[in-house]
Amino acid sequence: MTVGEETNFDLIVVGAGLVGATCALSLASGGNGELNIALIEAGPETAQPNLANFDPRVVALTPHSQALFQRLGVWQDMVSQRVSPYQDMFVWDAEGTGHISFNAQQVQQACLGHIVENSVALAAIMNTVEQHPAITIIRPARVKQLMLPSETQTQVLVILESGETVKGSLLVAADGANSKLRSLANLPTREWAYGQKAIVTSVQTTESHQRTAYQRFLSSGPLAFLPLQDDRDQGTSSSIVWSADEALADRMMALSDEEFCETLGEAFEHRLGEVTHVDKRFCIPLIQRHAIDYFTPGMALVGDAAHTLHPLAGQGVNLGLLDSEVLTNEILRAHQRSIPFGETQILRRYQRQRKAGNLGMMGMMEGFKRLFASDELGVRYLRNAGMKRLDHWPLLKNTIIRQAMGL
What is the pTM of this model? Predict the structure, then answer.
């Protein structure tokens, strides 16, 4: 649909990534077609995934996130393309013998989660979004100016670089870690660099991952091997996320493919045999960021626009989807009661439900990072002893599993 110079909507979502697109679809589905939603995206049309190659960007979806996508009717589309369930997880310390293992059967689940390529997940969501009559997609379009509600203005005005103006009762900012909307609304953040970069790519190994996710904690940063499902389902394809101190990451990026495979195999203790092939590598600086407030009257932040954290637990997208779910529920409840969506009481309830949990996860990840980065003998002894003991406490270990799975 083509918008005119000024178009009115009930809700405006800016950012058609996984979280933004899911938020728009959740609102449209929950509103039974009564809500008119604009989804504004800076990029071109969503490309269908190229299944001949693996997307270097993957998400580790929890069963809770899977259930959300099932309710929205997009999960089967993801499955028909490519998803990779994993039943086991093995974590160990490079500086000792401490380890811990998790198994889906311990919590009566079919799997611990699914590794899904970003392009697969996004295409499945957008295939449904594009067909929904309550959603108008405006793309490619970039936000130039923002006017929030005031004493003389009850609606949010989003002015695009094209000169078009989009009006709505509430603006949802899902435009990523470097959110322009967050800046335009003067919502401050607390942030700091980890001094690390994450190398992401896909690799082939000589031995099967047996649908197990692995993570080894090195003093320079965690290394994760995440199982991928290839066409022959031999289990020899994995996505890796190697977080390392910046200088080390730069050196590894400068290696030839053959040298990188050898270095990676050694760092992983050849747990899956030799690393025989590596796809193109990408290197991403790691920054922790958290908005002091998730809202201002007329606008709410979700996903990376509100918070980013270290990838060692793979929870970033899942936390963003939880943001979207909670905000959607609050908006739909307000709609049923004929309460304006941008009311402070609505947005404050959303923030109250999400902020503590997000901060808790961020604090936990920061604690893990510092704990495993320490090379002090006493700290090494305590963390290895702790991992061994936890591995033999089924009740506590299963509680951790269920919380991580969103159950």
Answer: 0.90
